[in-house]
Amino acid sequence: MEDEKIPGNIREKIKKELRHGKILLTLNTDIKYDGSFGEEWLIVTDKNMLVFSGTGQVLHSVRLKEVKEVEIVDLVGSSALEVNMGKFIYRIILYSNAKNSEFYQAVEDIGNILKGREVATKGRLKPKAVCEICNQPIPEDLGKCPKCTDKTKTLLRIMSFAKPYSFTIVMIILVMAVGSLFGLVAPYLTKLIIDDILKPDAVVKRFTKSEWLFLASLALFLSYAAQQLFSGFFLERLSGSLGYKTVYDVRAAVYEKLQELSMSYFDKNQTGAILSRVNQDTGELQRFLVDFIPITLEGVIMFFGVGALLIFISWELTLYILIPIVPTVIFLKWIFPKVRTYFHRFYHKRAMLSVLVNDSVSGIRVIKAFGQEKVEIEKFKKRSGEYRDAGIEMNSQWGIYHPILHLFIIFGSVLVWYIGGDFILKNRMSVGDIVAYTGYLAMFYNPIRTLTRMVEMISNSLSAAERVFDIVDTEPEIKDTGLPKEVKELRGGIEFDNVSFGYNKYKPVIKRMTLEIKPNEMIGLVGRSGAGKSTMVNLICRLYDVNKGEIRIDGEEIKNIKLADLRSQIGIVLQETFLFNGTIYENIAYAKPGSTREEVIEASIAANAHEFILKKPDGYDTDVGERGNNLSGGEKQMVSIARAILRNPRVLILDEATSSVDVQTEKKIQDALEKLTKNRTTIAIAHRLSTLRNCNRLIVIKDGKIVEMGTHKELMAKKGLFSRLIIMQKEFSEQASKMKAV
Amino acid sequence: MTLLDPKKIKIEKDQKNLLTLSTQNGKTYRKVNFLLLFPFTDLENYVSAVIRKGSEYAEIGIIKHLKDLPKDMGRYVREDLKLRYFVPEIRDIKSITTRYWFHKFDVYTDRGEKIFYLRNVRENVRFKADSSIVITDMEKCRYKIPNYTRLSPKALAELDRILL
Prior knowledge:
The structure holds two protein chains of two kinds. By secondary structure, chain A is an alpha+beta fold. Chain A is 56% helix and 14% strand. Chain A folds into four domains: 8-114, Pleckstrin-homology domain (PH domain)/Phosphotyrosine-binding domain (PTB) (PH-domain like, Roll), CATH 2.30.29.30; 151-473, ABC transporter transmembrane region fold; 492-569 and 653-662 and 670-742, Rossmann fold, CATH 3.40.50.300; 581-648, no CATH class. Chain A has helices at residues 8-17, 100-114, 151-162, 166-197, 209-260, 263-268, 271-313, 315-322, 325-362, 364-369, 373-425, 431-473, 533-540, 563-568, 584-589, 597-606, 610-615, 633-647, 663-677, 712-718, 721-741; strands at 23-31, 37-45, 48-53, 58-63, 69-74, 78-84, 89-96, 494-501, 510-517, 522-526, 548-553, 556-557, 570-573, 651-655, 681-685, 697-702, 705-710. In chain A, strand 1 (23-31) and strand 2 form a beta hairpin.
């Protein structure tokens, strides 16, 4: 099929081996049989399945006739393909995570070959995209080749965010040019003062010498003032407003995208990483736009403007002052990587210290309960000491390089006095020329320092920008189809039709599940943790899309129902209630924006929450605190039930809604839930099986499959998994109560 | 905790290269696998012998120190572990080239030479408290540096440049 991929020398040997038989599948792996890096080839023909080593040797050969099943075994960081021969199970080839999708597809294909079916052409996993430029595979979640992404494109993209502010940009350039011009005036004025006013035999016209001196000094002051006005006041304002406005837009775009993205994005990316992209990386962009771009532009203007003046005053002297530039640039290029290491180490240690503090403050209860304060203090001291040492090292390194750098530059000024002095002695230059010259020289050397760092700063900012644009460019996996069906009132019938799903699509959590839930039915999902109960709920809410099969609501495939309509008619009460920082009222009203106070109070009464809210001095205006920490577990639960009641959903999901509360509170919550579940489809997950007594049907899940289904009574009579679980729980609670009695 | 006595157990390889374990109480288990209880911090001690049943493991017992096993048995177990835990250890770094916003690592590992690409230091490099570093590359493969302070000065300099 794809045997052209095989290197020539191996192909010959394979052909020899496979005199008979048609090749149906070829696939290479990246790990050898002994677990080291290297290539092996899996070849499936219509008769055999073979594994060849990288040198063309046959490592395994099995006849398809004898194979019962081929399956993937997950290892750590890698996986293995195992062949089940009935009596024996062979492990025939290993592969690393990089090859997951290819082997996943291969197993399916081999399955079809074994059953004598055609290799499926529909519904195949997309082959790994390959970059057109470098021919390397592109990592799955990237979508574009990281190696060949054009830098200038990113730069242009940052600039495109600044486009609405192009007037400001023009103003910045103008203001900068004017400011720099004024900057150039001052040294020239000093030259005039020295050469034309302070000279003993100067020709005086119109004013006396002191009057001239006063005027010149005034002009000098005004030129400085004007420079400050333009390069300071105006420039800071303009570049600040440009930077902050642009970054505001970028940040808004990022946040908007984050809200749009599907759950799977948040599964794949750690919260910390996302947060740092939103905060730090956009901050980096801000520095780039606010500080760096103006400085660079100014540097360029100054470099060329001053350079021209220097040549104008004395082109010979200018040749001399270029001498130190070469070693300076070389030196800077050489030391920056060194110094940067120390800077990075310093920042790293600082970050590690803040992680530690963050950790110990949030875990302070545990620390105190276990009496580990001293240990924590020691840990802190150690980290803090590392941070201190990194700081000292950074400063002392900088202390070595900085003076050397300064010396190079001072050397330029000394040269000017030495060579220029000689020119004065030979009457080829005036003293004023030299003074002006040294004045310009400082301006000339300054940008060199900035410009050498430019490359590094650009690259840092661009990688920050890439990370930011990464979010902006991610397409949400779950979105409305072209013409989504509007469903204003769901009836609440739910069907699972041969559904398979895994958060990692190579590891299914739900396996070929088929199930029908009627409108207004109350279903209890039972099973051990990890069996797939919460995953089923996630699929019904369409937080994820199924990998295979179909979920239908009221007969319509869930993917075709308008997302907003679907979600607005599903209410969830979770075990881990999440309340936002705000008042009780705000948290309940969150479920239905624009609801009246009466509605909120009605909902709270129905949820049995009203009673405890009354007791709070601040009533409905009670602050729930960060993550609702000011409320007890049961109180939070009741608030979240009130929230669900207010929403009045057609489909209600209760995920372990009554665990982790005391018996009295549980009773109240149960009462509230009973009211809530009337006349709507309800799916309840509970570990405490007794709470599921009211369900019309119970569904027992194991390893992503339905193993039992029926009423409480039926399942007990069946004496299967459910009845075993009930008996176990009963025994456990009896034991527990005996213990209490003792 | 059921400890397996290294002097009294027997680990053998059958003709299919599968491992068989006979315990001190005379029971024999076929198709045994070994798991590390501390896969990141201890590759030589606390190794659990298990039998896979569907998606779950039934533990036969724990071998406390691999070094106490007779030589051949120790080798079998280490081989089995090496195949289960694919987290190559970086022994030396030939070069790290930074191209734009990713780093190309050219390294020697305990499983041979490898070139891999690291996308984002902040998100894909984890520093552990014991001076070890775990790097996840663009393909979601993990690499481990057991103790970065023990790398060669050149390797450390390369690493320092991008990591610290």
